[in-house]
Amino acid sequence: MTMFSYITLLATLTILIFTSTVRSCPASDRAALLAFKAALHEPDLGIFNSWTGTDCCHNWYGVSCDMETRRVADINLRGESEDPIFQKAGRSGYMTGSISPSICKLERLSSLIIADWKGISGPIPACITSLPFLRILDLIGNRISGEIPADIGRLDRLTVLNVADNLVTGRIPRSLTNLSSLMHLDLRNNRIWGSLPIDFGRLRMLSRALLSRNYIGGTIPDSISKIYRLADLDLSLNKLSGEIPASLGKMAVLATLNLDSNKLSGKIPDSLFNSAIGNLNLSKNTFQGYLPDVFGPKSYFTVLDLSYNNFWGPIPKSLSQSSFIGHLDLSHNRLCGRIPAGPPFDHLEATSFAYNACLCGKPLGACK
């Protein structure tokens, strides 16, 4: 080999090594990921077997990097997936351990998804609120405990907050209503207590608010009606009391309203029966009085469930003027009188009217 060839080869190797170093993820990101991995235990699927080598941007399972900065941008680890790893094993994942605060050293992190591993416990690291680029925080389906970080509202780019199906406790942080970009809020099936923030309506970008199966009390804030994008509101299986704000029936895109299994009382606002709401579940509360006779062509329900309350009097005749009612449940009330004939009553079963005071006519027994 001539001296010229040797120098050329050396220069080429130097460039390749330099390029490889530049294009690899920073050592600090790699160290943060390895510390994160060390706090978790997943022995069956080998999720972390690919987390080797110096470049955490290259073929590390569930890790994605920004193409320009080579900083870690996304961690996507799902315990229930159609990924070949799961298909080959023929099972869903199970992982124990906790979420290490080292995750907060990934300063460019945009999404953190550690979902459906069933055994990950411990708190949400408080430092998570220091990640200025975080858009998605999805920890559904684990055993996460402790409270939602008090200053969660610092994450002004957050669009998804999902901690459903965990053991999260405490109140909903006041700062949560500062999440001006939030579109999807899922806190279902936890141990959250206290009342809903009175300024909940500040979440103007919210389209889904799912908070069922908690211990949330107090009243439903009227400010919710200011969330003009809200399509799905589920507050069922809580301890809410008081009346339903009439303004909820005036929301332009609210399609699903689940308030069943609470302690709500008073009169149901007429507006709920002539609105955009197509799935309305108010069962298992303490509503009483006559059912409003206000149904009309704007009334379109795939589900209308008013069972297990204390309604009395006749079934409103205007129900037959509804454009559509798929499932109707008026059982377990104190209703009395003849069930109206024609649609939608002609396709309903007796269970829709059972356990009332003195209803009669098809599909129940004949009136005397």
Structure explained in plain terms:
This protein is α/β, with parallel strands linked by helices and 368 residues long. The protein has a single domain, classed as Ribonuclease Inhibitor (Leucine-rich repeat, LRR (right-handed beta-alpha superhelix), Alpha-Beta Horseshoe), CATH 3.80.10. 11% of the residues lie in helices and 25% in strands. It has 3 helices and 25 strands. The strands form 5 sheets. The protein has a 12-stranded mixed β-sheet, with no helix packed on it. The protein has a 4-stranded mixed β-sheet with strand order 1-4-6-8. The chain has a 4-stranded parallel β-sheet with strand order 20-22-24-25, with no helix packed on it. Strand 2 (63-65) and strand 3 form a beta hairpin. The longest helix is centred in the N-terminal third of the chain and has 21 residues, at 3-23. The N and C termini lie far apart (112 Å). Mean pLDDT is 92; it is low at 6-22.
